[in-house]
Design a protein that fits this description.
By secondary structure, the chain is of the alpha+beta class. It has one domain: YaeB-like fold (2-Layer Sandwich), CATH 3.30.2310. Helix content is 27%, strand content 45%. It is built from three helices and six strands; from the N terminus they run βααββββαβ. Strands 1-5-4-3-2-6 form a six-stranded mixed sheet, with helices on both faces. Strand 2 and strand 3 form a beta hairpin. The relative contact order is 0.24.
Length: 95
C-alpha cells in the first residue's frame, strides 16, 4: 500500500477550517466522485462530511506516484462551483 502524506498547505487548511485531521484520507479512500483537474493536472476526490451544522461536499485534491499519495488541499465545494468546473471542462470525470 502506498504511503499517504499531507502537504503543509493541507495541514494549514484543516486547522483554518477546523476540520478533523482524518477527514482527507477518508474522502480519498471512499469518494463519491472522482475527477481530473485539467488546469492543475491534479486529481480531485469528492466526498461528504458534516461541517458547521450541515452535510457538505468536500474536494480533496491529490497527486499520486508509484510510491506516495500526496493530499494537497481540502475545501468545501458548492454545487454551482462543481457544475461550473464540469461545464467548462476543467474537471473531467475519472472511471
Amino acid at each position: 500500500m502506498r504511503e499517504i502524506i499531507y502537504s503543509r498547505h493541507l495541514k494549514e487548511r484543516l486547522e483554518l477550517r477546523e476540520l478533523p485531521y482524518d477527514l482527507p484520507p477518508q474522502i480519498y479512500e471512499r469518494p463519491t466522485e472522482l475527477y481530473r483537474d485539467l488546469a492543475t493536472k491534479l486529481s480531485v476526490a469528492i466526498g461528504k462530511s458534516a461541517y458547521r451544522g450541515r452535510i457538505r461536499e468536500f474536494a480533496v485534491v491529490y497527486r499520486e506516484t508509484d510510491d506516495v499519495i500526496t493530499l494537497v488541499t481540502i475545501h468545501p465545494v458548492k454545487p454551482r462551483q462543481k457544475l461550473s468546473r464540469l461545464r467548462q471542462g476543467r474537471w473531467q470525470p475519472l472511471p
